[in-house]
Specification:
Layout (H helix, E strand, L loop, with lengths): L3 E5 L21 E6 L5 E6 L15 E7 L2 E9 L5 E5 L9 E5 L13 E5 L20 H11 L12 E2 L8 E3 L13 E3 L4 E7 L3 E7 L8 E3 L2 E2 L3 E2 L2 E2 L6 E7 L4 E7 L5 H4 L2 H5 L16 E2 L3 E5 L2 E6 L5 E6 L9 E5 L2 E8 L8 E5 L30
């Protein structure tokens, strides 16, 4: 309708050091609106100033129409690795809810330039954990908590946008950055229901140990990244409390969260952890790091790791789960042929496994649950829940 194209722009450089690029670094980490016919810039909004956390915009903006306080708005919602959702009027770039500049921690890396503030949306609230305090550490038992505090003392803890440190500065190994460099949200972005204005976002709670080391002969930059994904462990457990994967539903007409559920399969060493078992703690519903794009249908949302799940989109209740034997590696699709709806999952292609399209549907009358088709032509797969069923 408007003839506009909306471009999510990358981080200015891949490393977590920016001394060679002082300033806010427009138009990095920005949503830029252009006239599709002329290329003329219509508006822009920068979501992060002077990127140091690999929080680049990972997914395409989501376009929808919403009604806020009785006012109809042609909106754009942009999810980010930082676990924020920024919502703008897509005709002019004005925030639907105020975005405020807040002071953020400053660092001490030689030659670095630090932005004094960062943009914080007042709504919606973050969809995953941001920053690390002692309250975020594993504390399932007194012994685990004591060990977690001991391990955490080796690192810098702080709110979101706490910058990386040069390794071993002040006797600390790194800054524990949360969300990590993988997000929060990532390339799978979110999915929106155009009828209700509900946004559904898959995310993970996985920290990054953010530190710097001299570039030396490896780089022309004086410092380069020396950290890594995953974070430290405590008695075989992640230092940070779960859930470790989640789906969050946000009503974009109000900016409020509707529900959140753990998502993904917890690691076996978490579920079978001796310290948790001894304390009688069940970790089977703590979620995991796997996530795939969400497919929204009339009544359900589909998402999965090695199991395709059908979820009631109003409540977050799991309706059906179907093991696929391999991880989902792309977006799930749906289509109708002669009134029969199919759901197709993209799986495999990793760790030496072959890539497959797994097509699912309810059986035809008289066909039975085993039915025709199934994975790779093999019968016996359980059917998916009916996406059109009320």
């Amino acid at each position: 309708e408007l003839g506009y194209v909306y471009i999510p722009v990358e981080a200015p450089s891949g490393d977590t050091y920016g001394g060679q690029r002082p300033g806010a670094n427009l138009f990095s980490d920005s949503v830029v609106c252009l006239d599709a016919k002329t290329g003329k810039r219509i508006w822009y909004q920068q979501l992060i100033h002077h990127e140091l956390w690999d929080y680049d915009i990972p997914a395409a903006p989501i376009l929808l129409d919403i009604t806020v306080d009785g006012r109809k708005i042609k909106a754009l919602a942009q999810v980010n690795k930082s676990a924020f959702t920024f919502v703008f009027d897509r005709t002019n770039g004005k925030p639907v809810w105020p975005i405020v500049e807040k002071p953020v921690p400053q660092g001490s890396a030689p030659g670095e330039w630090y932005s004094p503030t960062q943009p914080y949306p007042t709504k919606p609230a973050a969809f995953d954990r941001q920053g690390v305090t002692e309250a975020d550490l594993a504390d399932y038992t007194p012994e685990i908590k004591a060990e977690a505090l001991k391990v955490a003392s080796q690192y810098v803890l702080g709110p979101i946008y706490t910058p990386p440190i040069v390794k071993d500065t002040g006797g600390k190994l790194a800054t524990i950055q949360l969300p990590g460099a993988g997000g929060g949200a990532n390339w799978m972005g979110g999915a929106v229901d155009p009828e209700t204005g509900m946004l559904y976002i898959p995310s993970t709670t996985s920290p990054y140990l953010s530190s710097l080391q001299p570039g030396g002969s490896r780089s022309e930059m004086p410092y380069i990244a020396a950290g890594g994904l995953g974070g430290p462990n405590v008695m075989g457990l992640p230092l940070i409390k779960g859930p470790y994967g989640r789906i969050t539903a946000i009503n974009l007409n109000t900016g409020d969260h509707a529900w959140m559920i753990p998502n993904g399969k917890p690691a076996d060493n978490l579920v079978n952890n001796p310290a948790l078992k001894a304390a009688g703690i069940d970790a089977s519903n703590w979620g995991g790091g796997q996530r795939s794009p969400i497919l929204i249908t009339k009544t359900l949302l589909f998402e999965g790791s090695d199991t395709l799940r059908a979820i009631d989109k109003k409540t977050g209740a799991v309706v059906n789960e179907m093991p696929l034997g391999a991880n989902l590696t792309g977006g799930t699709m749906t289509y109708n042929i002669n009134g029969r709806q199919f759901v197709v999952a993209v799986v495999g292609g990793q760790q030496g496994g072959g890539a497959e399209l797994v097509a699912l549907a309810l059986p035809l009358p008289g066909e039975g649950r085993g039915g025709r088709g199934g994975r790779g032509g093999r019968g016996g797969q359980a059917p998916a829940a009916d996406p059109n069923q009320d």
